[in-house]
Design a protein that fits this description.
Radius of gyration: 18 Å
Order of helices and strands: HHHHHHHHHH
Number of helices: 10
Largest sheet: none
Number of domains: 1
CATH topology: Vanadium-containing Chloroperoxidase, domain 1
Number of strands: 0
Strand content: under 5%
Structural class: mainly alpha
Helix content: over 70%
Distance between the termini: 22 Å
C-alpha cells in the first residue's frame, strides 16, 4: 500500500500545477482577495463566533485530522479482507488526494503567513483579517491560508465521489462531511476565505487525482 501510495505523489503534484489547472489557483487567490478587501472575512468572523455554535463545530478540527488518516487505511484493509482490488486502489487514490491537499496547502501557508483569528471576539479586538506575512515560513504551516482541514476533506471526498459517480448516498454523505469540516473550522480556527480557498484547492486535487487514476487504469487495460 505504502509503495503504491508514494508512487503517484510526484506526478499528482505536477498535475495540480499544470498550465491547464492554474486558473483554479488564480480563482482561489482572487476570491480570497475579494473576501479580505471587502471586509467580508471580518464580518463573517464577528457574526459566527458565539459559544453555542463554537461548541458544535469545534469537533470538526478533530474529525478533520483523524478521519483522513483512518478512512483510506480502513478501506484498504477491508478491500484486502474481501478480495476487492478496486476498493484497495480507491483507498490509495483517496490517500494520495489527501496527502497532496495537505502538502500543497502547507506550501501555500509557508509562503503567505496569514494570521489566524482568535477563537472568540473581544470588545476591543481589531480587524486582523488582512494580516499576511508574505515570505517563507513567517508563521509556519499551522493555521493560515488556505485551510488544510478543508482542502484535505474536499480532496478525499471529491476523489471518492468521482470514483463512485453512481453512488448517490455516498455522494451525499461525503459532501456533508466535507462541508461540515470546512464550515466547522471557518467558525473556529480559520477565516471564511481560508475555507473557501481550501474547498477550491481540495476540489481541484480530488478531481485531478481521481481522473489521473482513471486514465492510468484505462491505459493498463489497453496494454493488457
Amino acid at each position: 500500500m505504502i509503495r503504491a501510495f508514494l508512487h503517484g505523489l510526484p506526478m499528482g503534484f505536477a498535475r495540480i500545477f499544470a498550465p491547464r489547472y492554474l486558473v483554479w489557483h488564480v480563482v482561489m487567490i482572487i476570491l480570497t482577495y475579494l473576501c479580505v478587501v471587502s471586509g467580508f472575512d471580518w464580518y463573517y468572523f464577528t457574526q459566527t463566533r458565539f459559544d453555542n455554535l463554537f461548541a458544535l463545530t469545534l469537533p470538526a478540527a478533530l474529525m478533520g485530522f483523524f478521519v483522513p488518516i483512518a478512512l483510506p487505511v480502513v478501506m484498504y484493509y477491508f478491500g484486502e479482507w474481501r478480495g476487492n482490488t478496486r476498493l484497495k486502489r480507491v483507498a490509495i487514490v483517496v490517500a494520495q488526494a489527501e496527502a497532496l491537499a495537505w502538502g500543497i496547502s502547507s506550501l501555500y501557508k509557508s509562503l503567505t503567513g496569514r494570521i489566524e483569528p482568535e477563537f472568540l471576539p473581544g470588545p476591543t479586538m481589531q480587524d486582523i483579517s488582512r494580516w499576511f506575512d508574505f515570505g517563507f515560513w513567517e508563521r509556519g504551516i499551522f493555521g493560515g491560508w488556505p485551510s488544510s482541514h478543508t482542502a484535505v476533506a474536499f480532496a478525499g471526498m471529491v476523489a471518492l465521489i468521482w470514483l463512485y459517480p453512481k453512488n448517490k448516498p455516498l455522494a451525499l454523505l461525503a459532501g456533508a462531511y466535507a462541508l461540515y469540516i470546512g464550515l466547522g473550522v471557518s467558525v473556529s480556527v480559520h477565516w471564511f476565505s481560508d475555507f473557501l480557498a481550501g474547498a477550491i484547492l481540495g476540489t481541484l486535487i480530488g478531481v485531478v487525482t481521481a481522473r489521473g487514476h482513471a486514465t492510468t487504469a484505462r491505459l493498463r487495460a489497453v496494454v493488457q
